[in-house]
Structures are given as C-alpha cells and as structure tokens.
Amino acid sequence: MMGVKQFPEFRSERLLDYLSTAVMVLDDHFRLMYLNPAGEVLLATSASHARGKAIRELIINADMLTEHLSAAMENGYVINQRNCRLELPDLHSLIVNCTHTPITLPGQRNGTMLELRKVEHHLRIAQEEQLITQQEATHALLRGLAHEIKNPLGGLRGAAQLLEQEIADAALKEYTRIIIGEADRLQNLMDRMLGPNDIPNMRGTNIHTILERVRELVRVEADSGLRIHQDYDPSLPELHADPDMLVQAILNIVRNAAQALEGEGEIVLRTRVQRQFNIGNRLHRLVACIQVIDNGPGIDEQLREKIFFPMITTRSDGTGLGLSIAQSLISRHQGLIECSSKPGETVFTILMPLDSKNES
Length: 360
Ligand SMILES: Nc1ncnc2c1ncn2[C@@H]1O[C@H](COP(=O)(O)OP(=O)(O)O)[C@@H](O)[C@H]1O
Ligand SMILES: [Mg+2]
Hints:
CATH architecture of the largest domain: 2-Layer Sandwich
CATH topology of the largest domain: Heat Shock Protein 90
Order of helices and strands: HEEHHHHEEEHHEHEEHEEHHEEH
Helix content: 40-55%
Bound molecules: adenosine-5'-diphosphate, magnesium ion
CATH class of the largest domain: Alpha Beta
Number of domains: 3
Strand order of the largest sheet: 2-1-5-4-3
Number of strands: 12
C-alpha cells in the first residue's frame, strides 16, 4: 500500500516516531529524557543533543511550561494549555497548544509527558485547503465557459471564411478578415484559459537547472537594473516533475516580479528542503520549497486574495492568466503556490512534495 509505514516487528514505542505531534518526556527536574522526531523539528534540535538538558536550555521562556508541569505532577491530572508562545534559543518563536500529562518513570520517579501542537500550522492547513478548493472551483467554471465559447467560435470563423470567398469587393473582405482575426484571437485566449492540457511528462528533474533557465529567460527580457540572485540549497534532491511545466510556472512568477520592479530592483530565487511538512491536509516527509522574492512595491491585501484567479490583472497589457496557469501547473504536481507581500518584499512560495512518486 502507498505511503503506509511498515512495522516489521511491532513495538508500540516506535509509534511516537511517526506522530506529527511533538512529544517530550521530562523528569522531575524538568530535564529532557525523550524527544520524538516531530519534537526535533519543532524545537530545531536533535534528540541526542537535547537529551539530559534542562527544559530552559531548549525553550527560553520555559517558566510558563514548568509551572503547569509542576501542577500536573503534583495533582496527578492532565493540564491543557492553549496558545502559548515559546521562544527558542535561535530567537524564533512559535505558538503552540500543550498537553501536560503526569507519568511515572522507572524507579518510581515522577515525570511528565508534554505534547506540543503548533497552532499556526493548523491555521495554515485550513487556509490552504480553502485555497485549493476555491481554485478548483474557479478552474472548473472557467473551463466550462471556455468550452462553451470555443464551439460556436469555430462555426463563426468557418462561416466568415466561406463568406470571404463569395465576396469580390476588397473593401468588404476587410470585414470578414476582422471577423476571422478576432475569432482567432478569442480562440487563442480560450486555449490559454483552458490551460495546458498535455499529459505531464514526469521525470527526475533538477530544480536548479529549471531556475537557471528561468533566470536566463528573464534576464534577456529585462533592463540591466534588474539583478537576480540565487540562494540555492544544494542538498535538495531531484523532483519528480515535468520540466517544461515547471519552467512555465516559475517563469510566470518571476516575470511578474520583474514587471513589478519596472527594470530596477532585486529578485532572489531561493530553494530549501522542509521536513514533515503539510501541503493541504497531507503530511509529507520531504517538501521542496521554492521561493521567488522581489523588493518591489508589493501587492495590496485586497488584490492579494484574488491574484490567483484568472483575469485578475492590474497591468494594461496583462491577461491575468499568468498566476492562474502557474497554480494549475503546480497543482498537477500535487503542489501549491502561496503569496505573502508587503511593500519592499513580495514572496511567492511554491511547495512541492519530494515523496509523491512513492506515495501517490
Ligand atoms: N511580484 C509581484 N509584485 C507585485 N504585483 C504582482 C506580483 N506578482 C503578481 N502581481 C499582481 O498580480 C496580478 C496578476 O498576475 P498574473 O496572473 O501573472 O497576470 P498579469 O501578469 O497578466 O497581470 C498582476 O497584474 C499584478 O498586479
Ligand atoms: Mg503575469
């Protein structure tokens, strides 16, 4: 079966290794005795490094936890704590919901088990789910509409062609030529709205080769005031993807950034690996994170909610199809595009599973 964890010999304590909730076991002096892999990710440390350390060495503001941990140990009941902000030694902070459970350790010593669930994470999953559903609905609507327009358009064009052959007057032929020309333009637009229909040609693809292609293409189009920097994670494994589709998707995003910069500014192309990461409601072991960051004017909040919809554009010569097509290309790779923006920093993040070949 796909994506199912194998347990050749069943040992229940191993189950904690696969849990997406961070679990810590602490002794009566709040020293760490155990940390599961989700906990290693959450606290950005390794279990072997953290074992035996006092909790305040791992979490700067551990007081708010130890208070509840003591209470749980003394009274022997489970305590839930919501929305607490933890500060980590690397200075980044996160909001978690915690459960403190008193347990008895070997040698009859008191201890506690602490479960930490990241709050923003849940919010993000809900938002992504909504984004995916919304995008699927718009695409279905548009595809339907485009099909309905394309069919009579063919007839219209054919009739104009026949008419053209019947007309001797060159001045009148000008009209049929306009009909044919406009029908072709509309046909072209509908084809682009329907999006790429080819079956993806999936193969092992190096994302950095793709990014270098895009960088080259945008550089040729842009003025010399535009700088495109690379910030690549060389450990990123190959993606199982259609390279042409990826070039198209990323090109649409980078081109937008270049246009927003109006010839003067910086774009950073960044790649990273994320472990135990959710795309929609699905947890992936490894996810490729590709970011296009520009220092342009940004996208205001009202517009930001709509930019992935087709036909949304602020440019006089825009079609509003670039991001919609990029999104549909990436979703064919089980991935997702997100956007965050403030003046001076707009970030488009593409998330794609690195384990989809084995799991889907
Ligand atoms: N990096 C960016 N900075 C500022 N605005 C952006 C950026 N990327 C996209 N946008 C906004 O999103 C809109 C939609 O983009 P897109 O779907 O590619 O259509 P188009 O490029 O044809 O306008 C753009 O018109 C622009 O307003
Ligand atoms: Mg565009």
